[in-house]
């Protein structure tokens, strides 16, 4: 089963870390990515640019309008994702729980990816 692990964190939190802590955090990410590559579970993933560069399309007065920013009512913003192919939702959650951003107040959302055949999961 394929899962999307959505990374949510507070923008700029890494700049608040000491250089040693930041190096350790990125080292953990590299370690997890290497492991998932070796096990064949990693499908892909990317970090996203700063939320200030976001455009959001919303319906305004009956017409789609492009607005600057994500305009989320939260401290956390969508920061990136991993796509994994693993045996169970428990394994996907195990991978997400190891993501270092979680220790710094972030969150990982684990969502099954729908099959191309339709909406049935």
Automatic annotation (TrEMBL):
InterPro entries: Dimeric_a/b-barrel, YCII. Residues 1-115 form the YCII-related domain. PANTHER family: BLL7171 PROTEIN (PTHR35174:SF3), BLL7171 PROTEIN-RELATED (PTHR35174). Belongs to the YciI family. This is YCII-related domain-containing protein. It comes from Micromonospora noduli.
């Amino acid at each position: 089963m394929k899962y999307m692990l959505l990374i949510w964190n507070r923008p700029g939190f890494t700049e608040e870390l000491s250089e040693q802590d930041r190096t350790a955090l990125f080292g953990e990410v590299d370690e997890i990515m290497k492991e998932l590559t070796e096990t064949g579970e990693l499908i892909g993933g990317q970090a996203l640019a700063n939320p200030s560069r976001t455009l959001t399309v919303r319906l305004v007065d009956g017409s789609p309008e492009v607005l600057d920013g994500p305009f989320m009512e939260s401290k956390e913003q969508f920061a990136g994702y991993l796509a994994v192919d693993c045996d169970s939702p428990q394994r996907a959650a195990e991978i997400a729980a190891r993501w270092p951003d979680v220790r710094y107040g972030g969150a990982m959302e684990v969502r099954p990816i729908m099959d191309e055949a339709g909406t049935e999961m």
